Amino acid sequence: MTLDLFDGEGVEPRRETIAEGAVVLRGFAGKAGPGLLAAIDLVASQSPFRHMQTPGGHTMSAAMTCCGELGWVTDRRGYRYEPRDPVTGQAWPRMPELFLKLASEAAAEAGFENFVPDACLINRYQPGAKMGLHQDRDEQDFSQPIVSVSLGLPIVFQFGGPRRSDRPVRVPLGHGDVVVWGGLARRHYHGVLTLKAGDHPLTGACRYNLTFRKAG
Ligand code: MD3
Ligand code: FE
To answer: How many domains would you assign to the chain?
Structure first.
């Protein structure tokens, strides 16, 4: 008989519900960390990280790249998904198998079977970078969840409601944490506070966030 302290009602719950439809799977991607970072490097060798422009003419503080059939882009013309990387003129890099496996396993763990993302947005935060409150609404079907994976330095995530004025709750997200956003939570405002300086054994001075989407 072995005692598993981290199962069920243990002192360190691995699963937290932060709102209806928003499930945090603490450390779910921890073991896959090195493989995920190698896959990020492979994607970025084909479609480099870049700081995109908002339609309002501001430069985003998080650097971004994408993989999969569709990639999210923003420029003076607006926000949208595109089948080609505007920097390289080529199709976005293919989605690594490890990404697909992790995203579908996490979604299933949260009750969404058969999640097959066609887009993965990769955000890279360096100290001082942040992401203001926004909604993700450029995807076709809001009944599809979004799966997010945090790697490297910790950050404080802000999770609001369906209106920008709804007061957000703060949730710390660390290396290996995976969150599945479905149901009502899928439409809620969210963002992250400014990344603080630090040194992570796998990522050094940065944090990566992968968001898996069914965009098309
Ligand atoms: C809640 N990224 O890429 S991940 C984004 O940490 C984005 O890079 C943040 O917001 C980051 O769009 C937050 C958590 C997250 C991602 C998508 C969501 C929460 C979400 C979509 C709907 C609701
Ligand atoms: Fe978002």
So the answer is: 1
